[in-house]
Amino acid sequence: MTILTVALKYLRGRLVASTLTAVSIALGVSLVVASVLLARGIKEGFIAGATDYNLVVGAKGSPTQLVLSVVFRMDLATPNIGYTTYRDLQEDPRVEKAVPIGIGDAYRGFRYVATDSAYFASLPWRRKTFALAAGRFFADDPPSDPTYEALLGAEAARSTGLQIGDRFYEGEEMAEYPLTVVGILRPTQSADDRAIFFSLSSYWGMNEVARAMAVKPLTAVLVRPKRMSDLPSLHRTLNVAAETQAVLPSGVLLTIFNMLAVAEDVLKVILVIVGVIVLLYVFVSMYSATMERRREIATMRALGARRATVLGIVLTESAALATMGGVGGIVGGHAVAYLAGSLLGSSGLVTNPFFFDVAEPAVLASVVLLGTLAGLLPAVLAYRTEVAENLAPLS
Amino acid sequence: MNARSAVVLHNVKKAFPLRGGLDLEVLDLEHLALPSGSTTVLRGRSGSGKTTLLNLIAGVTVPTSGTVRVGDTDVFALSEARRDRFRAEHVGYVFQTFNLLSAFSALENVMLAMMFAAAVPRRLRRRRAADLLARLGLAERLAHMPAQLSRGEQQRVAIARALANNPPLVLADEPCASLDARTANEVLGVFLSVCRQDENTLLLVSHDEAALDRAERVVDMAELNRTEARRDAA
């Protein structure tokens, strides 16, 4: 029998109280771990979605709205720009890659995104890769002969239940232009999972106004310069133009992260309060256990236990509770992050709940240390228990 | 000091501080010696200082003055930590209300006492605890929790615990007071029998006639404690 086995016996002896205390620690730690994982996952999701292209070119207006709508499909589409903007950028010697984007309506909440095959191309500098789960990519059809072929993102396909060969449309006015599913993408853990892609020709074909326009409309153009040194001049050229603005997604990300930072600060305060409440709960639990056990502590001392031994027993109990709660909290935090990530992942906010952060051993160590410290005062009370005084009424 | 005395107290006084700077003297003892291997019954009325005397001998209460020797050791010349260790290895203590630890089985309660001493090697502790409980008639109750035992069985576990480290001195504070007469007689019989077999020196606080009859010596606190005598005279 050792101090550890005695401490564990005592914990088992008050199983309900011990379990509740460990669960409360686990809940607190879960909250911290899940919040950290989700915050990081959301940031990574934004970075992964926004950093493949250096510029997003669209109509003048809110830069944040442009990036959120074109890259993350999280806001209303900005006004249109002309297709000629895309043509000009394609011919610009400073541009390595320009990809046209048209943001349309939605089918059952899944946004229509018109583009061409360049959007799905594998390029050395691209972090994101597109692969087919079934079927094929839509054809790059000419404006005169739109095919109305649709390529579904993984979540769009899963949620709508559409299969290869299915025809669909949203609203009676679109019944004349049904889209036919020709392919389904594998999950990319980005906003593209919730998109329904088709060609620009189909995009223009299904819109009465666009059909009549001599210069076809686009929502935006994604641009990657040949050299980073070209980026400032491209940025300036497009911004001085009357109709267009060029936005650096990294700048918008910074704005978004600044907004998130405020939420993170609030979250930190909440987490600190949760931590304090959990520590108080551990303290109260250990304090009441020690007070109830004064006679047993006095008995142990009368049997020869040193003051340091009873101090060690109470501290070990606290540490064991904190360890159980801490481990449970880290596992629970990953589980919560996984569940939340599953919900958020399909909206383009990525998280990897199985990613083990190097800080987690430090989190566990901190939990054990703080939990043990919460038991310090009760342990000191046990240490100071007067033997004769606490045996006297009963002996 | 008598070489054959297991315990010797000399000019021991104990006073407890009261509010207002006053002290309450509860014990004033000139001399007490317990022969090694003897069984002594200590009797006296309530408040006569019996429990205080046991606590002084056990080293859990510090005397105001005087010396307490157990064997060759001046108990209060030791540091508190060493006194704890000394108590674990040399003094067994049986309480009136058993004081078993509720979260521990009968076997674990006995093994717990061995954890505080180095008298029994770690690998032998389980066997020694089981053997002691078997000698006290509890071979079938090793895994039982205190709440699952009768009061008589609980006190037998407490006796086994006091004897766990084979201490030369065993102190018992009215060990049968909370038992019915028949159970008290049974428990006392087993207790005295085991102590005699193991040649433990036993100091027993009791008013039980059966205990008084079986003791080699009976010490009356009214004669031993000068504070008590002064109180009576007043």
Main sheet record of chain A: 10 strands, mixed
Give me the number of helical elements of chain A: 14
Q: What's the number of structural domains of chain A?
A: 2
Count of separate DSSP helical elements of chain B:
9
What structural category characterises the helix and strand content of chain B?
A: alpha/beta
Residue share in β-strands of chain B: 15-25%
Written as H for each helix and E for each strand, in order along the chain, the element string of chain A is HHEHEHEEEEHEEEHHEEHEHHHHHH
Q: How many strand units of chain A?
A: 12
Alpha carbon gyration radius of chain A: 31 Å
Helix content of chain B: 25-40%
* Coarse morphology of chain A: elongated
CA-based shape of chain B? globular
What does this structure look like?
The complex is a heterodimer of chains A (395) and B (234). With 395 residues, chain A is of the alpha+beta class. Chain A folds into two domains: 181 residues, no CATH class; 193 residues, no CATH class. Chain A contains 14 helices and twelve strands. In chain A, the strands form two sheets. In chain A, strands 1, 3, 4, 5, 6, 7, 8, 9, 11 and 12 form a ten-stranded mixed sheet that branches. In chain A, a hairpin with a 2-residue loop joins strand 3 and strand 4. In chain A, helix 2 runs parallel beside helix 11, helix 9 packs parallel to helix 13 and helix 11 packs across helix 12. Chain A is elongated, with a radius of gyration of 31 Å. The two termini of chain A are 26 Å apart. Chain B is α/β, with parallel strands linked by helices and 234 residues long. Chain B has a single domain, classed as Rossmann fold. In chain B, 38% of the residues lie in helices and 24% in strands. Chain B contains nine helices and nine strands. In chain B, a hairpin with a 2-residue loop joins strand 4 and strand 5. In chain B, helix 3 packs parallel to helix 5 and helix 5 runs parallel beside helix 6. Chain B is globular, with a radius of gyration of 18 Å. The interface between A and B is medium-sized, with 27 and 35 residues.
